[in-house]
């Protein structure tokens, strides 16, 4: 997809090289200094996947194909983000084991948070730099991406619901289910089915019969209204008014359904609150026997329910057909593509569920600490034995893949609320991510020159990107802006370098000559936090 409009937020070549090169250099140095190079590599991969998905979600030439591929990227994006978050915390805690006392807990919390901020900040910086090169971080694309991620989850949710219902329906009745959940669910399902289609003989069931009749009447009225009967009916001045008859029938069925819906709860209160003998004595014997016979007829109830389901199917099919006819092939493909991608992900999850869970159980049993293995055996193993591997993994995949939806919605909110502007959104995220990673790395023992270089680099990335976008918009895509961009970036880098050099000099001079007391530590820390917050808002 090419973009030749001068208002595009894409970066020119020189600014793009500065943003990508400086971001890659700082991410590498910060991750090495913090000792999280591997986890940062995963975070960078997740950031690149999000940028690629945003680009594909707005691909104009082959939009259905782009949306389909973006839906498939929901898996890598979600797994990458969760791996970065959970893996960083787990590695930080594992490196601090065993705990000598609770006194080290505050230090451990600070270390875990700082490590997490380094990894997340570096991943965000990579995402922002990649997104800024193509100008893909805008409101239209984030809206499309959020919609794609939400639709991709629907097939997984449907498959999980079907598997869950199948597990409940296959209950053997021996009461050995997890905490009796399966037994109780099966009993409740059987009672509901009996209440609908297998009524108790010898008594009236007016309420349930009215409810089923109301559903059937409303469903048939909706199906007739959806069908193009009035359009196809002949219109003659001397013949019967078929169109009027159809409209009258639809109106009568709708009103009948509404009336029966009102009668059903009233009849239910009477049948539950009054003894059946009283109901029988209040009606003539012939009428009571007729009511008992009609309302207790199982075949009639099943017929009403099937009529309701068939009417809904007809109405839905006609609605889909109308939408399909009115839409172009490209639009239909755009709507269907994420559902197809979600269905493929669901099939993949079901296929790998059993071997993945088997390996997890083996790893936990053989390598995990005794307490963790015992906890797994007490809680997770009964859940797996109760529901089955496929059900558990599919439902877990729904929760995991929701991460991509959260990411897309968060980006959309940041643009809608104008926390970042579309013109400089990518470089703002890149600069902010580098700044967060740098300040977090400072608490993990990173050298002073590296911290200062990170702060200056974050400012240069943001400034070079913002200036490049402005220059491209004002000068156009044909003009040679390389020299102007290099001069501007060089001046910003020079000013930042002078400030960093002065800071290093002041630190060398002040070392050993200034004594800080414990009382001044807390105010100094608060002042530093306020300064960092002010600088972050200035960068934004």
Topology overview:
Elements: H1 13-34, H2 37-57, H3 63-72, H4 74-96, H5 105-134, H6 139-169, H7 181-197, H8 206-226, H9 229-232, H10 242-273, H11 276-281, H12 285-295, H13 298-326, H14 329-367, H15 370-387, H16 389-416, H17 425-442, H18 448-475, H19 482-510, H20 521-539
What features would you describe in this structure?
The protein is mainly α. It has 2 domains: 13-150 and 421-511, no CATH class; 178-329, no CATH class. The chain is 81% helix and 0% strand. The protein is elongated and about 105 Å long. The two termini are 29 Å apart.
Oligomer: single chain
Rg from alpha-carbon coordinates = 33 Å
What is the H/E order? HHHHHHHHHHHHHHHHHHHH
Distance between the termini: 29 Å
Characterize the main sheet: none
In DSSP terms, counting alpha (H) and pi (I) runs of 4 or more, how many helices?
20
Low-pLDDT sequence parts: 1-8, 172-179
**What portion of residues belong to β-strands?**
under 5%
- Structural category: mainly alpha
Shape: elongated
- Number of strand elements: 0
């Amino acid at each position: 997809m090419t973009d030749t409009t001068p208002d595009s937020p894409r970066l020119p070549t020189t600014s793009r090289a500065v943003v990508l090169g400086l971001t890659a250099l700082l991410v590498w140095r910060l991750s090495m200094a913090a000792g999280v190079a591997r986890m940062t590599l995963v975070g960078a991969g997740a950031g690149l996947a999000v940028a690629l998905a945003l680009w594909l979600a707005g691909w104009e030439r082959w939009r259905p194909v782009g949306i389909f591929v973006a839906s498939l990227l929901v898996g890598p994006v979600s797994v990458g983000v969760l791996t970065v978050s959970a893996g960083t915390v787990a590695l930080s805690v594992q490196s601090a084991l065993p705990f000598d006392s609770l006194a080290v807990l505050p230090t451990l919390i600070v270390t875990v948070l700082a490590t997490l901020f380094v990894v997340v900040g570096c991943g965000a910086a990579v995402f922002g730099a990649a997104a800024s090169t193509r100008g893909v971080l805008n409101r239209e694309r984030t809206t499309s991406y959020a919609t794609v991620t939400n639709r991709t989850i629907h097939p997984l949710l449907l498959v999980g619901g079907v598997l869950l219902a199948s597990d409940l329906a296959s209950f053997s009745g021996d009461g050995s289910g997890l905490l009796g959940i399966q037994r109780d669910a099966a009993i409740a399902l059987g009672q509901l089915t009996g209440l609908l289609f297998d009524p108790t003989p010898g008594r009236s069931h007016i309420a349930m019969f009215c409810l089923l009749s109301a559903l059937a009447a409303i469903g048939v009225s909706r199906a007739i209204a959806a069908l193009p009967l009035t359009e196809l009916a002949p219109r003659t001045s001397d013949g019967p008014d078929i169109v009027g008859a159809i409209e009258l029938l639809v109106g009568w069925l709708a009103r009948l359904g509404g009336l029966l819906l009102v009668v059903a709860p009233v009849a239910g209160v009477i049948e539950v609150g009054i003894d059946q003998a009283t109901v029988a004595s209040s009606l003539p014997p012939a009428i009571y026997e007729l009511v008992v016979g009609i309302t207790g007829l199982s075949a009639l109830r099943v017929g009403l329910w099937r009529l309701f389901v068939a009417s809904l199917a007809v109405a839905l099919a006609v609605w889909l057909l109308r939408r399909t006819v009115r839409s172009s092939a490209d639009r239909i493909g755009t709507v269907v593509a994420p559902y197809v991608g979600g269905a493929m992900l669901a099939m993949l999850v079901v296929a790998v569920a059993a071997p993945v869970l088997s390996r997890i159980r083996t790893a936990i049993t053989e390598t995990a600490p005794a307490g963790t293995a015992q906890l797994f055996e007490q809680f997770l193993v009964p859940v797996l034995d109760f529901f089955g591997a496929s059900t558990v993994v599919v439902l877990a995949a729904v929760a995991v893949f929701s991460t991509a939806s959260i990411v897309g919605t968060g980006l959309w909110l940041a643009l809608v609320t104008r926390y970042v502007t579309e013109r400089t959104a990518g470089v703002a995220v890149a600069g902010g991510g580098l700044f967060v990673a740098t300040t977090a790395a400072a608490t993990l023992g990173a050298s002073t020159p590296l911290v200062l270089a990170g702060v200056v680099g974050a400012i240069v990335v943001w400034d070079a990107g913002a200036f490049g976008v402005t220059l491209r918009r004002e000068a156009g895509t044909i003009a040679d802006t390389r020299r102007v961009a290099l001069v501007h970036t060089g001046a910003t880098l020079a000013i930042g370098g002078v400030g960093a050099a002065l800071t290093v000099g002041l630190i060398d001079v002040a070392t050993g000559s200034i004594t800080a007391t414990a009382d001044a530590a807390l105010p100094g820390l608060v002042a530093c936090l306020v300064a960092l917050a002010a600088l972050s808002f200035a960068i934004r």
